[in-house]
Amino acid sequence: MSTSVELSNVTRQFGEVIAVNDVSIHIQEGEFFSMLGPSGSGKTTCLRLIAGFEQANQGRILIHGQEAAHLPPYQRDVNTVFQDYALFPHMTIEENVAYGLMVKGVPKPERKARTQEALDMVSLSSYGKRTPAQLSGGQRQRVALARALVNRPRVLLLDEPLGALDQQLREQMQTELKSLQRQLGITFIFVTHDQNEALSMSDRVAVFNRGKIEQVDTAKALYNAPKTRFVAEFVGSTNIIAEQLALRLTESARTFSIRPEHIQLDPVQMNPSTTSHPDRLSVQGTISEILYHGASTRFNVTLDTGEQLSAQHTNALADRPLNLSTRVSLSWLPSAMVQLDGAKS
Ligand code: ATP
Fold first, then answer.
1. How far does residue 204's CA lie from ligand 1's centre (Å)?
2. Would you say domain 239-339 falls under CATH 2.40.50.140?
3. SS3 at position 229
4. Domain residue limits, the chain
5. Regarding beta strands 155-159 and 78-81, do their DSSP bridges make them parallel or antiparallel, or are they unpaired?
6. Is the pLDDT of residue 270 over 70?
7. What is the CA(195)–ligand 1 centre distance, in A?
């Protein structure tokens, strides 16, 4: 597989702020690649550098092997879909989609055919004569997508494209975007601060923190084998086993992450055997909070030694009752503990 977009040691500074700090990424052709991170972590700046709306202070950007530094946005084989759609309100949907082709001087018959093709791709072929105000939010988002696809780019850059949609529509559009990407086979570079969105759609995800990339991996690897405390906490929720507790449990003064669903929770009096199971590590404590989530329940437990741990259990119809202040044993397999790099608790 060939490289679609490559960033090598790219830095972008705005005055004192280092928005993107020595970032290197290789994005493969046809990949669904997400840039995930909290607000201000540099993901939009990174996307804008690829699009050509920003220039790097240092480092190289290659698009399909070609040095991009001196190419203006319109000469790069990429197109951007923005969060606010940026549709022209006075133009029809067809005119909005055809606009870029008109500016490029594409002859009218070809313009018409390609506009229709792009509207077909996003299932809006019968909406061409409407104006943006006559469409729903999800439909407007699809027009923005068609407007980028009409240029037949090899790379589509998407900046929080689903941010303005309500949850249900957002999930529906996630499925549609994913299947469109698979069908077209073009590279998608997708910016989001929503970890579920990134995990469910992407082939690989880059996790940004303060202008740097903490980890680039598949969704499964990020979740099951986070390398840093930041990734463990930002991608899903987790328990951090700090050095002191780790030392007592494993005789190793390192920091670990363990996902709440990997911790088994049993009332102490009902199942004393769990605590003495040779394969499992265990601690005891008292339930301090119960958070019901429908499909699962989260139990926050205060350990006898003062630390807090959370266990998450899938709810079944005939669950045993576990109440606040119940004495419990928490146990897990040592393999569920993931050691984190350089994390200080
Ligand atoms: P969000 O999810 O809020 O869009 P982000 O991760 O995309 O955040 P960026 O927009 O890339 O983050 O911003 C990274 C940092 O660079 C922030 O501190 C931001 O304030 C700063 N920044 C971005 N653009 C500019 C600019 N044109 N001038 C000055 N500072 C900027």
1. 23
2. no
3. helix
4. 3-234, 239-339
5. parallel
6. no
7. 19
The closest-lying atom of ligand 1 relative to the alpha carbon of residue 44 is 7
Superfamily name with CATH number, domain 3-234:
P-loop containing nucleotide triphosphate hydrolases (3.40.50.300)
Q: What is the pLDDT at residue 345?
A: 39
Can you give the pLDDT at residue 343? 47
Across the chain, how many H-helices and E-strands are there? 10, 18
Q: Which of 284, 275, 262 is nearest to 333 (CA)?
A: 262
**Backbone CA torsion sign across 62, 66, 68, 70:** positive
Predicted pLDDT of residue 166: 80
Q: Which residue has the higher pLDDT, 286 or 152?
A: 286
Confidence of residue 271 (pLDDT cuts 50, 70, 90): low
Which pair of structure tokens corresponds to residue 37?
A: 């991170």
pLDDT score of 109 more than 60: yes
Give yes or no for residue 14 CB within 6 A of ligand 1.
Answer: yes
Q: What is the CA 334 to chain-centroid distance, rounded?
A: 28
What number is the average pLDDT over the span 123-149? 90
Q: How confident is the model at residue 261, as a pLDDT?
A: 96
For ligand 1, atom 28, the nearest C-alpha belongs to 14
Q: Tell me, using a 6 A CB cutoff, whether residue 42 lines ligand 1.
A: yes
DSSP three-state, residue 5: strand
The whole model's pTM is what? 0.89
Task: Give yes or no on whether 3-234 and 239-339 have one common fold.
Answer: no
